[in-house]
Amino acid sequence: MIPLFFPRVRLEHTIRYSTYKYLFSDASPRSDYYNDYYNLPSVNSLFRREDYWKELMNDFSIYTFPDEKKIRSNF
Asked: CA–CA separation, 59 vs 39, rounded Å?
């Protein structure tokens, strides 16, 4: 007979590093549009905005399982 092993606890670790870059470019901007909506009065030539960010996620989890005696039912 082979004895059964029922785990009671599970540990889990996840780490993730990501980089993101956003670029918006407008080759023929309308000065009145950018002035009205973004309060940028002197947009006459190429309009370009960039954003760049990094994200580090570090997750650690502990999972517990019910006791073996509570798993079995008397049906």
From this structure: 41
Distance CA 62, CA 46 (A): 52
Sequence-ordered list of residues with C-beta below 8 angstroms from that of 69, at least 6 positions apart, any chain: none
| Structure confidence by residue, pLDDT tens digits, 31-50 | 788 888 888 877 778 888 89
In whole angstroms, what is the distance from residue 8 CA to residue 26 CA? 58
Residue 67 to residue 9: CA distance in whole angstroms? 10
Which among 39, 20, 21, 23 is positioned nearest to 31, based on CA atoms?
A: 39
Running DSSP on this structure, what letter comes out for residue 28?
Answer: S
In angstroms, the first-to-last Cα distance of the chain is 25
